[in-house]
Amino acid sequence: MKPDVSLDFKFTSSIEQVWHALTDSDTLAKWIWNNDFQPIVGHKFQFRAEPNEWWDGIVDCEVLEIEEPHKLSYTWTSAGETTTVTWTLTQTAEGTTQLHLDQGGFSEETKARQGAIEGAKYAWMNMSSQLEKVLA
Amino acid sequence: MSNKHQERDVYVAIADPTRRQLLNLLAKADELPLHELTAQFEMGRTAVSKHLTILKDAGLVIARKEGRETRYRLNAAPLKEIQDWVSIYEGFWKERISKLHLLLEEKK
Prior knowledge:
By secondary structure, chain A is of the alpha+beta class. Chain A has helices spanning 15-23, 25-31, 110-135; strands at 5-11, 34-35, 44-48, 58-67, 71-78, 81-91, 97-104.
């Protein structure tokens, strides 16, 4: 059993471009949600999705680590569950960029159970609304 | 956890370090009797037995009577619920990243 989300991605863009997409508030809004992110350690911010029947649409975050352009980490609190999201960027010899994502710190306690239900609902709600847009 | 329903929850069952340790011990053996499990902990037979009951209620261990002793073995299947839950987040991030891919391609 591996309790954390751990994913690897590869981009043909430069490490600077990927870093920009991860740390520029307007760009972040285009692929995650509207936000008031600032690349400052200790900065508290929110991602604000469309609220729905099950979820208020708010993710509370706090910047934990900034190491331009290699590492970015923030807390991710939503539906009563606090996790940590960490992005690691590596430039390859060919000028492409490897992006690694870790989401860890899922609690195993009672609130995780609630988080499980809420987390599942909001993820599915979000995916279905994205699908609607794609199909429209 | 006072009520029975919550005790059956797999997340509650693995929330306690003693119970996780019990699962680890059972994962390494086919089947273990209570006295052998108790020997691994600084607590009495009754306390260990109580933890085993919670694991049993969550479907994580299966108990079998052999003469006077009860023997326990692991049933890992309910742990899949936790794995499934985490993979929902995985799906969420994969979808976000595919949007990021498109975004970076557009900027070229």
